[in-house]
Amino acid sequence: MQLEPMLPEAHELLARLVVAAGGVEAALTLYPTDRPSLGAMGARAHVLAADAQWDSAISLLTQVVAFDPSLPWAQAAWLEQPDIVPALSADTLLYAILALNRQLPEPVSPEIRETIAPLYELLCAAVEQYDEDSRLLAMGSSLARRFTAFELAESLAVRAHRISADQITSVMLGQVYRRTGRADAAIEVWADQLRRDPSDEYLHTDLAELYAETGRPELGLPWLEAVVAMSPEHEKGAPALLGLRYRMEGDIGHLVALADHLRAHPDHHYADELLTQFCGDASWLGYIEGAGESLVNMLRQVIEQVPEGRAELELQCTVSMIEPPSAVLTLRRALPRVEITVSEVGDPDPRLRSADWNPSGLAVWHYPDNAMTAVPIVAPPSPESAEKISRTTQLRWPHLPAAYDFAVALAGLPLPDLLGALVHPPEPDPDPFYEQHPALWIRAVQMWACLGIAHHRADEPWQESTRRTVLFDLLHGVEDWVCEAAAIALIAVAWTDPGTRADIGYAVCRRFITLAEASRSRPVTILDSFCRLVLACPWVDASILELARDILEAETQD
After folding, report:
1. What pLDDT band is residue 1 in, cutting at 50, 70 and 90?
2. Residues forming a β-bridge with 316
3. d(CA 479, CA 487)
4. Which of 134, 237, 373, 555 is such that its CA lies 20 to 30 A from the CA of 145?
5. What is d(CA 450, CA 483) in angstroms, rounded to the nearest whole number?
6. 387-417: per-residue pLDDT in tens?
7. Measured in Å, how far apart are the chain's first and last C-alpha atoms?
């Protein structure tokens, strides 16, 4: 019965067991509640129903259904007996509905809806018998709403609110209005309730976010400010206020503050939800920034025009100026027979490390004998490390702290292997998406390898650490995607460790300034990406942030 609640043999055996045990009470002793298991409690509910102990049977069956609603515990013939509904007490109904509301998602999936339909219909019919119980009507409305029975949900909520316009009935009525697209009606109900009783901090938050959802975040701001004034560390109100301010201002500083709140309160899941929501729409904060080099754009066109057999193509292409070595790598991995001609170097020379950085000597790319094409100067990663890096690589992640935490899986890899992956990235598993967008895979591998470096010898103090030295060297290396990967790994460190922010922000801004200055005399393909990376360091000087915004705006206008 644990796996097949509808098995006819099980129900037949239960009936025979009751007789053999000498009656219902004796049979119940075989299923003691002090040593519960799901199947045993399901059997106990059916034995109780056989004795018409409806309150106990429904109460227990509901708990079993709530524990695992995917199994057909509620597909029981006895639920259709007409004498159950009038026999159920208000308390039994209330706690049964509360048990379901706590466990069922909103909305309930069609599969689960069908599975527990008999129990749901019985509970709704029973609620209708208690026309003067506002609590029961309100909770019944919440259950109906989960089943998208909005007419019933509204009817129950309206009746409950008329009986008693209190916190519970106001919340439930507002939720029905919200789910059915009547935001202003929900706002009116909730605002009236808060004027009567301003103590419900969660309702303040819901009201403020409803204003934000309907494009009026400034009207929601005072409600959230009131919550934080009452409870500065409120688990929902404090993150919601930061999220609302981010909506209004677009200042990533509010997302950093959200990350700080989550680090201080890891059990405040709403901060994690908001951070995921807002970072998911921003490149580098939640997904890989795309590449914009002409070589990558050309490869994209070839992929579109030549669906198969590209590896055999013999192509010649000319670029006006040196492009990042990783862009060349991407093209040559997809088109091994391509010949690339570079017309000129450009000034300042992108083949040189950042002029104002005193390196430790570490590099992954080298231009031999003043060549126009770079070559790797580190060995490929071992097969084992390559496989682990490949398994860890993702194109999307919830937010930067989550990406940093996930990359701890690479902490044990040898540093030479992590460096090797930057210029010898492992091949992805066969995937049509990566076949269409090979540059994204390489950029993602580079980012995750750098995040792995960010965990290298994590016990070393930051300022004297190997991980700092290596990432700073990569950041200031020859102009390449590796610089971006090092930057986002450093920024992820800064988001998770406030003590590193000034140091990392300065380093990222310094690299950004060298790129911005170079762009005055030649194209810098990674400049736009670095603008977004700088904006992900909202603690740096306001003039640097403004420059990054101006460059992006000019690029958008062009």
Report:
1. very low
2. 339
3. 13
4. 237
5. 10
6. 999 999 999 999 999 999 999 999 999 999 9
7. 68
Beta strands in 283-422 (DSSP E): 316-321, 339-344, 365-366, 375-376
List all residues 6 or more positions away from 316 whose beta carbon is below 8 Å from its beta carbon.
338, 339, 341
| 141 Cβ contact partners less than 8 Å away, ≥ 6 residues apart | 152, 153, 154, 156, 157, 160, 172, 173, 176
β-pairing, 375-376 with 316-321?
unpaired
Residue 396, strand partner residues: 287
Cβ pair 476, 483 in contact under 8 A: yes
Tokens describing residue 17: 């067991």
Q: What is the pLDDT of residues 483-535, one digit of tens each?
A: 999 999 999 999 999 999 999 999 999 999 999 999 999 999 999 999 999 99
How far is Cα 478 from Cα 495, in angstroms, rounded to an integer? 26
3-state secondary structure (DSSP) of residue 12: helix
d(CA 507, CA 495): 15
Structure tokens at 237: 């109100």
How far, CA to CA in Å, does 550 sit from each of 54, 249, 281, 428, 523?
Answer: 70, 16, 21, 37, 17
Supply 271's token pair. 């901060």
Closest CA to 540 of 494, 485, 486, 484: 494
What distance in Å separates the CA atoms of residue 516 and residue 514, rounded to the nearest whole number? Answer: 6
**Backbone angles phi and psi of 411, in degrees to 5:** -60, -30
What the block records as the tokens of 294 is 């002409």
User: Is residue 137 a contact partner of residue 154, using CB atoms and an 8 Å limit?
Assistant: no
3-state secondary structure of 316: strand
Distance of CA 78 to the CA centre of its chain: 43
Quick one: three-class SS letters along 472-499?
HHHHCCCCCHHHHHHHHHHHHHHHHCHH
The answer for 319, left when phi > 0, alpha when psi is -120 to 50, beta otherwise, is beta
Longest Cα separation, the chain = 97
**479 exposure class (CB count in 10 Å sphere: 0-12, 13-18, 19+):** buried
CA distance 339 to 335: 9
- DSSP output for 244-262: HHHHHH--THHHHHHHHHH
Which secondary structure element, helix H or strand E, spans residue 277, and what is its range? helix 269-279
How many whole angstroms separate alpha carbon 364 and alpha carbon 475? 11
What is the rounded CA–CA span in Å between residue 307 and residue 527?
32
